[in-house]
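Tokens in:
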């Protein structure tokens, strides 16, 4: 039995691909972070971060191509709704870069964070989910 679904826009699949890539990056970040035996923080491997940043550029471009025509075609209040949807989608797919920047500012590349710091970061990421769900309409 084949699954049938209807896309509201043909390019919505691009944003779905970007979200899948972001999910894979976040999974690999969490696996490498929690499985390390030593007291190391986030990975300092230049090659790994090059791959992550290049994939993040790809994700941003996929989101851009998914929304650019919808934003141009919208008028009135729909224009602002489409802009909000684009902004939320872009923030959501660039989450690994945001975690990396926050980790650099806090010092997570040197030492692992305490459990309380990690809980605050996870809470901030989870707050994005209902916000993204609300802005999709």
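Residues out:
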């Amino acid at each position: 039995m084949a699954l049938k679904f209807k896309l509201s826009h043909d390019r919505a699949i691009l944003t779905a691909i970007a979200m899948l890539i972001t999910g894979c990056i976040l999974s690999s970040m969490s696996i490498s972070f929690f499985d390390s035996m030593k007291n190391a923080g986030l990975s300092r491997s230049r090659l790994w971060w090059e791959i992550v940043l290049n994939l993040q550029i790809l994700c941003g471009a996929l989101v851009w191509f998914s929304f650019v025509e919808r934003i141009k075609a919208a008028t009135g209040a729909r224009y602002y709704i489409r802009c909000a949807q684009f902004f939320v989608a872009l923030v959501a797919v660039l989450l690994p870069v945001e975690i990396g920047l926050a980790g650099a500012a806090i010092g997570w590349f040197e030492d692992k964070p305490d459990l309380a710091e990690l809980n605050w970061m996870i809470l901030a990421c989870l707050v994005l989910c209902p916000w993204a769900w609300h802005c999709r309409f």
